[in-house]
Amino acid sequence: MNTGLTTKFTKAWTALAVIWAVGSLALLLSSLFSSFNPGFLPEVYWLAVSILTPVTFLMFGWDKWKAKRDSQRIPEKTLYLLSLLGGWPGAVMGQKTFRHKTVKRSFRTVLTVIVLLHVGIGLLLVLQPLFATEVNT
């Protein structure tokens, strides 16, 4: 059952993943090649997202390919771990692109929790310098 609301939610979720992946790469590059210096931890986070997003996307595609051929699959724990370590935008885009892991409710729930965790981390890393500036002035 695919309602209009579900379709709008899925499109918004995918858009968030694409924006996050591009934004992560932009923040990483700006911290490496300009005077913008968010610190070591944010750079590591943006680097992880920038590297693991395409890796996770490809893993979803590979797992879908294997599923169609009744071949040995990639364990869900591996897909969860890649998503948790920063590849969640690739997981969301992979779900949408390959129509993979979209029916299993438990997988969608865990991935949603991972995405919300990363949104919180990202907001904290982006907003942290603003709060530090206000405290120092």
Topology:
Blueprint: H1 4-33, H2 40-68, H3 76-98, H4 105-136
What is the gist of this entry?
With 137 residues, the protein is mostly helical.
Protein described:
The chain is mainly α and 137 residues long. It has one domain (4-136). The protein has four helices and no strands. The protein has helices spanning 4-33, 40-68, 76-98, 105-136. The longest helix has 32 residues, at 105-136. The chain is elongated and about 55 Å long. It starts with a helix and ends with a helix.
Helix content: over 70%
- Binned strand content: under 5%
> In terms of structural class, how would the helical and strand content be classed?
mainly alpha
Count of spatially separate domains: 1
As a whole number of angstroms, the C-alpha radius of gyration is 17 Å
Global morphology: elongated
What's the SSE pattern?
Answer: HHHH
Span between N and C termini? 54 Å
Number of strands: 0
The profile of the biggest β sheet is: none
| Overall average pLDDT | 79
Low-confidence stretches: none
DSSP helix count?
4
Short descriptors:
mainly alpha, 137 residues, 83% helix, 4 helices, 0% strand, single chain
